Amino acid sequence: MIEPVRLNEDFWLTASIAAVWAILAAVYALAPWGDMIGYAWVWGFGSVLFAALAALLVRR
């Protein structure tokens, strides 16, 4: 019998951080003022890292 995946509070915390970082990346990418695309790359990369960490936490 296959056990259902139970998501713990570590997963939810990390997934919410990834979501916030993704939103910030989108805001900086779409910002009307100049030279903010560099910040979008930083926030986007951080979002990917937190999403990967959340994926690892699901397997735990």
Total number of beta strands? 0
Low-confidence stretches: none
Main sheet makeup: none
Task: State the assembly state of the protein chains.
Answer: single chain
Structural class: mainly alpha
**Beta-strand proportion:** under 5%
- Dominant shape: elongated
Q: Any idea what the radius of gyration is?
A: 15 Å
pLDDT averaged residue by residue: 85
Overview of this structure, please?
- With 60 residues, the protein is mainly alpha-helical.
- Helix 1 runs antiparallel to helix 2.
- The chain is elongated and about 55 Å long.
- The two termini are 18 Å apart.
- The model has no long low-confidence stretch (mean pLDDT 85).
Protein topology:
Layout: H1 9-29, H2 37-59
In short:
With 60 residues, the chain is mainly alpha-helical. Helix content is 73%, strand content 0%.
